[in-house]
Specification:
Length: 454
Amino acid sequence: MYKVHLTSLGCPKNLVDSEVMLGLLLERGLTAVAEPEEADLLLVNTCGFIQSAVEEGIDTILELLERKRESTVKVVVTGCMVKRYGAELVRELPEVDLFLGPDEVPAIGERLASLLASEQRAPQGAPAGSRFQGSSAVSGFLMDSSLPRKLATPSHRAYLKVTEGCNNRCSYCLIPALRGPLRSRSVPDLVAEARALEGAGVKELTLVAQDLTAYGSDQRGAPRLPELLTALLAETAIPWLRLLYLYPTRVETRLLQLVADNPRITPYFDIPLQHVAEPLLKAMNRPYGETQIRELVARIRQLVPQAAIRSTFIVGFPGESEEHHERLAAFLRDCRLEQVGIFTYFPEEGSPAAGLAEQCADELKEDRRGRLMALQAEISLEINRARVGTVEEVLVEGVSAETDLLLAGRTRYQAPEIDGCVYLTEGHCRAGDLVRVRIDEAHPYDLVGAIMTD
């Protein structure tokens, strides 16, 4: 009977895959353990989206292999990095027992059983069989509610992956090559999974996809995101429904109105804009310009006045000039987004943008990122200071990661694992409670408050 330890890297969508694989292994009688030292099987689900994620994956695998050198533990590597570098990984990491790409998620139990059986049959010192079956085929796996899932998140929150793949073809991105074209799950299947998660105690359900607003567009006449949300509102009583990864040109008025009319949908809009300078957006294959972006922000502010807008931007994209950088800074000053992430561009091998001329120097990228982050810190602090004295509903996460003397939670305007939190200085509660909190103190990313007792 094997004990398995899971390390999940990358985004929430990858985490859902990890939870499914863990569920499948538990169905076969394995036991999940919290510490790698307790495990017979070390499973790491990797991300291959950007270079920093690849480096994190390699470092993690090497750490796990150190333990294998001192024991009989098995090491299994899965995920996007395997899809991207499969054959190369097999050559460079011969100590890994099994490699699985993202399409092999539902087969992990069979593949692991086959590996163990082949080891038992092999003569001493002989290779145990194929550790990787490389494939250049277009990805086609799409999870459904029949697959078991062992949540790796706290029991009061979970992710609902509504699609797989992407059709957007941004020039800097490898997701279509790694995950294939857009595939949407059906509304009844998503509702079934949401109801099961609600039954397990989930109070915040975060809908995730590479492009959430593209939901259903791959199927003629299929429901779209507003219809899915309407079904989730009708068929569940989950208090918070959160939306991540909305594409700018597909944030429709009817979606905004739905959020405005339904307080169970958190007024939180995560819209990766990437830049505002039109020459760069064109080179990124992003079909909009600064005027459309500003109009979108204004429409959100008008229809959902309480909304928090989060976005991500890329600095140092090929051809970015100081003028382009200043346009982005001006946009941040004018539009005052609540949450912002700034990333430095890296020419990912295999992406169209990697071959563009006018690549920016690394020092310049870091300088521009630092300037924008400092600017946004000032903006976020001003926005948070305006919340001092207000009372906000907070979902309690549990003991703070910073100190065991405080509890921490999040408002509707703070997404899990992405944004800041609310530190709770007074009052009693449990993880998973929804409590009313008086905000007493503000910082650029976090808030401090006390639980209201009346």
